[in-house]
Amino acid sequence: MLNETTLTTLPAGVQALPYRREAVGRGIVHFGVGNFFRAHEAWYVNRCLGLPGQAQWGIVGVGLNGGPRGEAKARQFQQQDCLYSLTEVAADGARTVSIIGALREYLLAPTDPEAVLARLADPETRIVSMTITEGGYNIDEETGRFRLDEAGVSADLAHPRRPSTVFGYVVEGLRRRREAGLPPFTVLSCDNLRSNGHVARAAFVGYARAVDPDLADWIEASVTFPCSMVDRITPGVDRATRQALNAASGLDDALPVLAEDFSQWVLEDNFCNGRPALEKAGVQFVDDVAGYEQVKVRMLNAGHILLGAAGLLLGYRYAHETVADADLERLANAYWTLDAMPQIDAPAGFDLDAYRLRLLSRFSNQAVADTLLRICSDGASKVRVFWTDTVRRSLESGHDLGRIAFGIAAYLEMLRGRDEKGESYAPLEPTLDADDMALVNEANLAAALALPAFDGWRDMDSIALDAAVVKTRHAIRERGVRAVMQNL
């Protein structure tokens, strides 16, 4: 098993740690230790730790979900001393394998909540980061305010010293620091959200205000919430993939991660209590993240959902299969060049067409084997985040709505869980309840347009778009996805 005792006997070709792990501190606490975080933030920090004066920036991971699955994950991290391997694969199949040691400790919050709070209140902690998904910030899309009526939040408000949500933990940690006269930590969102720093500020300050208005004022004045744009395709790792990764590397790793060789992190340099020298590890610091965010969200993420929904209906299961299909590739290129790119305010000098071509190459990476079900998971949250700006601009300008209507129609048809070959699959939609899913299957095909996925343009005149979506859903059922695509 991979652990600290095996670091001196790694198989040939596996890159060892470029630093002494015993010297690494615990300057960052991260909520949501999933594959993306392990291939992205932890990878960048791992590169920093080998630089002079950077040893203090090791990471303490926190899992919020207990139960058998959460407990098993915690055991695996502990048994491996929080070490794991990362395999990076290029589109041409070239790969590198490296050991990541940036994660110094893993805490399971339901098992030992006080350990998490103690770590948050420790002066050594200077950054608290998170990957809690696009829909995890509990913000009311209509008001922009933090929702206090969510069950976990309500429970935390009743017992703020014994939290269970990320909001409760972070705010209680900040309360303890303020009480002890310690400086606050930076709160860093690493999720695919427009203006994710502003969203995080609204969420955590909103929760804090319901607990203690004076504490909320201190957080508003003292805590920084940098905006960031993150990008790296990181698929799930099932048993077969884990076995294949270990067979290729020669390791015995219970927690291997697979990712493409591309990675990007654009960050606002707004840290209230210090930060790692991430610019030396490939992170781009800018004054305004918004332009980079718009390019990524409205091209990569929106394109992913478009290809994912249509691909699932056609019977495909992997991203690389979609761009190998001439009709789907043509659809994606038309959406990018005709709908998205002309309406994006890109950073000065940014080459959108080169970015488009790079996306096609990245999506074609067979070795990554990114599943369409992963890409489309939590689609209700993703559609609202990834498509809203393009839809709003198209409605405002009178732009052609054909491909946008097709994307929405394909997404709704995909939610029904059956492809055109009659095979079933299980879409993962954690924010949609039984009533929402009933709307998807309603005989009146306009009923599903009431789903929260489309709230981002609810205030606009979308009569023509709604009619086009309903017409396209009928056409998909009558003529099939491919026939409809060919007329776009």
UniProtKB/TrEMBL annotation:
Origin: domain of life: Bacteria
InterPro entries registered for this protein in UniProt: 6-PGluconate_DH-like_C_sf (IPR008927), 6PGD_dom2 (IPR013328), Mannitol_DH (IPR000669), Mannitol_DH/Oxidoreductase (IPR050988), Mannitol_DH_C (IPR013118), Mannitol_DH_CS (IPR023027), Mannitol_DH_N (IPR013131), NAD(P)-bd_dom_sf (IPR036291)
Pfam family for this entry, one: Mannitol_dh_C
Record keywords, A-Z: NAD, Oxidoreductase
Residues annotated as domain Mannitol dehydrogenase N-terminal: 27-280
Mannitol dehydrogenase C-terminal domain boundaries: 288-458
Protein name: Mannitol dehydrogenase family protein
Organism per entry: Komagataeibacter melomenusus
